[in-house]
Write a structure and sequence with these properties.
- By secondary structure, the protein is mostly helical.
- It has one domain.
- It contains 2 helices and no strands.
- The chain starts with a helix and ends with a helix.
- It binds fe (ii) ion (FE2).
- The site of fe (ii) ion has 4 residues, from helix 1 and helix 2.
């Protein structure tokens, strides 16, 4: 179970990095619509990441 959760955490971390990059690129390109959308997606993925990191922090069942 731990391995599965670690795999999900890795995927969520990749998603966070990707959306953060998109936010930065959109900001550089002066594209506030894309920036807002990417920021929203980034917040979702950060939430997922925190949630799954919480699973690792809780005792194994
Ligand atoms: Fe996610």
């Amino acid at each position: 179970m731990r391995t599965v959760v670690e795999g999900v955490i890795e995927a969520e971390s990749d998603a966070v990095s990707t959306y953060q990059e998109l936010v930065d690129l959109a900001e550089d390109a002066d594209d506030p619509v894309t920036e807002d959308l990417a920021a929203e997606l980034l917040a979702d993925e950060e939430e997922h990441l925190v949630e799954f990191e919480g699973f690792l922090a809780s005792p194994e069942k």
